[in-house]
């Protein structure tokens, strides 16, 4: 029993650390310090640092504020991260979203880097028809690289 509990805690720490790294990358990509981010979220710099380090879990309400402030879809925060149930967050998000979700497509979100998140943020500003065109271009480029 104890071994299963230890493995569960380890898996949670890995997820929290991966999410924290993603939050840090997004924050740094926007040119903000930890102090700036903490101020925007109404928490201490120390607390925000612990979230980014994966030491403390980030409450859902804080993730929502973060995603709104940074103009990042909340599903992008979890895309490609392993879940506690053994299913990747991106595959779960993909199953719950319609095909018309355009830039939220799990193929694009898988292992999102800061650059991919910036592309997604820019794409969100486009009308849906342009988003579909952009997605088609990205898929064509991917097919070229694979072929």
Which class of secondary structure composition applies to the elements?
Answer: mainly alpha
Count of individual helical segments: 9
Poorly predicted tracts of residues: 84-111
**End-to-end Cα distance:** 49 Å
Explain the layout of strands and helices.
Elements: H1 2-29, H2 34-41, H3 45-53, H4 60-70, H5 74-78, H6 89-96, H7 106-109, H8 114-124, H9 128-146
Q: Would you mind describing this structure in some detail?
A:
The chain is mainly α and about 150 residues long. Helices cover about 70% and strands about 0% of the residues. It has helices spanning about 1-30, 35-40, 45-55, 60-70, 75-80, 90-95, 105-110, 115-125, 130-145. Helix 1 packs across helix 3 and helix 2 (about 35-40) packs across helix 3 (about 45-55). The longest helix is centred in the N-terminal third of the chain and has 28 residues, at about 1-30. The N and C termini lie far apart (about 50 Å). Mean pLDDT is about 75; it is low at about 85-110.
Short description:
The chain has 147 residues and is mainly α. It has helices spanning 2-29, 34-41, 45-53, 60-70, 74-78, 89-96, 106-109, 114-124, 128-146. The radius of gyration is 17 Å and the shape is globular.
Keywords:
single chain, mainly alpha, 9 helices, globular
């Amino acid at each position: 029993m104890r071994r299963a509990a230890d493995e569960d805690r380890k898996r949670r720490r890995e997820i929290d650390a991966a999410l924290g790294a993603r939050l840090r990358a997004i924050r740094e990509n926007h040119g903000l310090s930890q102090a700036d981010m903490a101020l925007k979220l109404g928490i201490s710099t120390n607390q925000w640092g612990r979230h980014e380090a994966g030491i403390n879990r980030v409450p859902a309400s804080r993730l929502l504020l973060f995603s709104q402030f940074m103009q990042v879809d909340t599903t992008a925060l979890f895309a490609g991260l392993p879940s506690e149930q053994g299913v990747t967050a991106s595959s779960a998000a993909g199953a719950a979203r319609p095909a018309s979700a355009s830039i939220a497509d799990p193929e694009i979100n898988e292992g999102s880097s800061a650059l991919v998140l910036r592309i997604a943020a820019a794409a969100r500003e486009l009308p849906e028809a342009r988003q579909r065109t952009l997605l088609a271009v990205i898929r064509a480029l991917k097919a070229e690289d694979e072929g």
